[in-house]
Every structure is written in structure tokens, then in C-alpha cells.
Amino acid sequence: MDRPAKISVLIPVYNVAPYVGACLQSICSQTLKDLEIICADDASTDESASIVKEWMAKDSRIRLVSAPVNGGISRTRNLLMKHAGGEFLMMVDSDDWLEVDALERMYETACACHADRLVCGYRYYYEDEPDREDFFLPGSGTDADKSWIFCTPDTIGKVHHGTNGLMIRRSVVEACGRRFPGGLVCEDMYFHYVTYPFCKRASIVREPLYVYRKRAGSITEEFTSGYSLKSLDYVKVALLILEAWKEDGLIEEYRTAFLKMLVMSVRNVRKYAPHSEQKDVTRTVCRVLREEGLYRPQEDDGRLTAREAKLLKSWLAGKSELGFSYYWKKMRKRVPQLFRH
User: Fold this and answer.
1) Residues with Cβ < 8 Å from 49, sequence gap 6 or more?
2) pLDDT value at position 251?
3) Coil, strand or helix: which one is 172?
């Protein structure tokens, strides 16, 4: 039986004809050669699949699987994982690309640290400002003299949960049995939180090895507009994570981690969703906290920040905790729009 490739690079493809060639070029040119490169075409209506096939003729490591109908990013990623056989899975979007030694650096780090999951930094590429330099480097989840951390309830929120630039051991994903949830835009948060407890060690590579293309009209741009109903998915995903942890017998161990993640999710809804939706969010959170008995001040407050504890107490009491500063920030964002013609 053939030894599995070191990394399965998983690329969801949908109407990205102008970009997918550059993505594949960056992966085929990697200094680490022991790869399988799997593209999944989500019923594209442009030339994306044809471009992938042209690259297949150039590089035998590339495979293409196709969905019969368009099903969205989560279903496409799940299809990719179904066909992957590598030691590690690496997620790359088809309009992004990797620095030439990205996979070698990450795989060597994984081996050196015995890590089950790794994340790396981003370099952002702005189509309308190609000379702009902008980076995202993952936070200090590890000590300065240590390149890895144990995967525990205390560290789950310290590791960036984005899927792009994520490398995870395939055996962990199989042991977990969880996949990306369909129809939600925070699918990467779900995947991080449900797979993390099955990992033993995580490593953060604080270098911009992944190049993230920022382009007009993207889902992310719409999501962060401040008036997007899609941002409500933060709370929907948080509740799905709660159910998964309950099913896996993890909720008691990860209860405080869930509370921190819930606070983060609601604050993102506050930031991005229309004000008209805020009361329903508060009612939902209040109901869940009461029914599940999740917040226990005497046990939790020592591990929560003062702000987190204050918000949880207010939501448990059925209050939205939207003060003057919240409305002032909203008003400042709206004022320029009121004067546009």
C-alpha cells in the first residue's frame, strides 16, 4: 500500500476563473513536493473547472472532484475531506495563494512539535491597492520560548479559528467525526471549536505564509458592512457548538470556554448586525443560559474577564447591555452615509 502524502491541499472552487490558476501555480511550486492537491468544483458556471483540468495535465498530483449542483463552501470542503488521504489537511481558498516554502515550513513545524493543528499568518493582497502592505499575524497563544501549546479549554480561544491557513492532522478530523455546517458563514469557527478538543498540541507559525486576496463583493466584505443579517450566524454557530460538545461529553470541561466564545459571538453580532435584531439575540442567549445552567458565577468569574462576567449577568437578567457608547459608535458610522447623494 502506498504511503499517504504528507499534506492534502484542499481547494474549493466556484467561479474563480481569474484566480484559480495563480493559486495552483503557488501550490505546485511549493518546496515541499510530497503533496496531493484536490480541487472540488461546486458547479461553477465559468471556466474554473477547465482551468483546473489544464493544470491536471501539467501536474499529476492534482485531482478534481465535482459537485452535481452548487452547495456552498461548507459542503464543498466536506467533499474535499472525503477524498483526502494525506497525513495533514491544508485548507486554501482558490482566489488566494501560498508563499513558496509555506507547506514545508508548516510540515516541519508540525513534526518538530508533534502538533495536530497549525495556523500561520496572513499577508493581505488588496486588488484595488496592490502596493498596500497589511498583515495578520496570529496572537501570542504560545510563550516566546515555546512553539506549541497543549489543546485545552484554556487555550482554545488563543488559537486563530480561521480555516484559511489551517493545517490539521487528518486522523484528528476522522476521530472527531465533525464536518463543516451547511448554510452558515461562520463555518470556520464551528470547525475550529469542535475539532480542537480532539487535538493534543497546536502550533502557531507567526509568519505571513498565506496570501489572502481581498476583493470587492466578497462574502467577508458584505459580512462586515455593519448591516448584514449573516452576522447572526455567530450565535447560531455558537449554539451548534454547544450541541456538539454536549453530544461528545465535553460541555462540562469546556463550559467556561463556551461562555467566552458566546460573549465573542454576541459582541460580533452587536458589531455587524442591524440594531433591529439585537433584542431577539438577547432573548435567545438568555434562554440558553437559563435552560442549560451554563453560567455559574462562583466557578466562572475567576476565569472570565470583568467585562465577560458583566455581559453574562446582564444577558441572564434579560438585558441587552447596549450602553451609550454602543449607540454613539453606530451613529458615527451612519452619519457619513446620511449625507451621501
Assistant:
1) 13, 41, 64, 66
2) 96
3) helix
The pairing of beta strand 166-169 with beta strand 88-91 = antiparallel
pTM: 0.89
- Please list the residues that pair with 205 across neighbouring strands: 120
* 297-334 tens-digit pLDDT: 989 999 999 999 999 999 888 877 654 444 445 555 55
Closest CA to 38 of 68, 60, 16: 60
Q: How close are the terminal C-alpha atoms of the chain, in Å?
A: 67
Please say whether the beta carbons of 90 and 106 come within 8 A. Answer: yes
| Cβ atoms 187, 178 nearer than 8 A | no
CB 134 within 8 A of CB 124: yes
Buried b (16+ CB within 10 A) or exposed e, 23-44: bbebbbebebebbbbbbbbbeb
* Domain boundaries 7-216, corresponding CATH code: 3.90.550.10
SS3 content of the chain, % helix, strand, coil (to 5): 45, 15, 35
Round to whole Å and give the CA distance between 209 and 97: 9
Backbone angles phi, psi at 64, to 5 degrees: -125, 125
Say if residue 141's pLDDT is above 60. Answer: no
Mean pLDDT, rounded, of the chain: 89
Q: What stretch of H or E contains 7?
A: strand 7-13
Kindly report the length of the chain.
Answer: 341
Alpha-carbon distance of 71 to 213, in angstroms, equals 23
How far apart are alpha carbons 107 and 32 in whole angstroms? 9
Q: How many CA atoms lie within 13 A of 110 on its CB side?
A: 23
For the chain, helix (H) and strand (E) counts, in that order, are 13, 10
- Residue 218's pLDDT band (boundaries 50, 70, 90)? low
Question: Which stretch of DSSP H or E encloses residue 125?
Answer: strand 117-126
Question: CATH 3.90.550.10 residue ranges in the chain?
Answer: 7-216
* Residue 35 near residue 26, CB atoms below 8 Å: no
